[in-house]
Amino acid sequence: MKRMNDIACVFRIQLAGMRREAGPFLLAALVFPSAMYLFANAVGGADVGENRIRFLAGSIIFSLSLTSISWLGYLMLENRFTGRLKLFATLPLAPSSYVFGVLVFALAQAALGTTALLLVGRALGVNVHPNFALLIVVVFLTILCLCGIGVVVAARARSFSEGSLLTDTLGAGLIFLAPVYYAPEMMPQALRVFAKLLPTAFAARAVQTTLAGGHEIGIELLALCLTAAATLALGFKLMRWRED
Amino acid sequence: MTATTESLLQTLAEPAPATRRMGKPDDDAPLAVRVRDLVKRYRDGTEANRGIDLDVRRGEVVSILGPNGAGKTTFLRQLTTELLPTSGTVSIFDVDAIAEPERAKRAMGITPQEAGVFERLTVREHFELFARFRNLSKREARDAAREVIAELGLVPETEKLVGALSGGQRRRILIGLALLGRPPLLVLDEPTTGLDPSSRRTVWGVIRRAVTNGATVILSTHYMEEAERLSDRIGVIAAGRLIAIGTLDELLSRLERSYRLSYRDPLGDSCVCYYSSFVEAQRQIARDRLSEYSIARASLEDVYFALTGEQFDKDETGETA
Questions:
Q1: What predicted TM-score, i.e. pTM, was given to this entire model?
Q2: Taking CB atoms and an 8 Å cutoff, what residues of chain A touch B130?
């Protein structure tokens, strides 16, 4: 009960802080991925229905990546390097409760961003037949996975500038290095195997399949589960209140 | 020497009426804090704390003084579980703070020397949200926030964003956060540093009220007056060791020469000499035909100087710092 209350409090603190920054949030989580969708349509050809679904799936993953690695990572870095984390450390609060609170905040943002992008897709005439329950599971696992990366960076960065550079690079890099907006065959041969193993690649395939009404995403879900478990376990291990 | 000067000197020679607080806690009161042989050695070999022992009884106020870099903050950070000791034990209300930091922190309200605040939250939101971590219900959190805001003189700022507040007001917020839920132990690391004299006195009042309500307080400070006014006992840390601890009188009694003569020499330089009696100091004045001088009973500052070899500077407000 205490843990649930603590997680809710961390979430509310982040939410209360973000209320006054709705503009940049929308820019990061919605406008930019929407623009990327339009850009990909223009460059890749929107005449093929499969492409349009791929671009929409890519934009959803891009939005999740920005939300969880770039934005959330930045938030946690800011908390750490401005001394706010110390404020939490003075409380009878487990570090994992702090991370979970921030994670719930990311999930709320992800729900908002994904819903908005689906609406944008529908408004632009993308023909999707998503299984919403499966889509929620995929988005949930993707967020866990990417947040884990954000937590690791935020906990290990030696300075604010180093950390924000890393979160920005990973937030965008994991999208453009993985076959998210294009087919894996379009990548250089040497990069294909590496790119296919990136969590964003699994997430994009899962979202794309789900948006097209498919269900065959067992491998993708397993990969996302394993990556989420690994990155979060590492993140929890590194996020400590107590210094040695 | 005129009669007026004589009378002034007599007045100075009287011990300063200490503005003592609510009375010393019982010697047999149970322990709130028990620290044994606390050592902190960093990887580069620096020993920040070298075997500190300290017992603090419930309801007691203990101030920790010491030069910069002496190990005060390191000590308090180990006490508050923020820093893992190399060896030694820390017990907070019989809870092993090293093994169970979260449980130990339930009994502590902590103001770190430096911490950030959430600039995009209002003052009220800060207190209400952080009070909830202390297991207070929404209503209790609201009441606790209102109470602390009033105590710290932050009522006009209640609905302001913290980002719009001054450094001193932010410092008061950090102190207020430690008070939420009335924890039985307050650990305050230089709580009034950076505050103007009026705010400093407000904070002293808040600490006194907390003690009246049963709290135990451990604080570090650079202000002699703060230590004298608030503390039951004063400890001095130097080079990582707790080199002295006792009541103000006990510390003063350590000085063999407890009369301080301050004067200007013929070249205009300020000088200080210590004597074992008032008469002895007067003899010196007559012998050197001093015209600009004062004699006073030795103070905590003199004890501090004798123990650490360091003078306290004067801060920007003119108070001893």
A1: 0.83
A2: 9, 87, 91
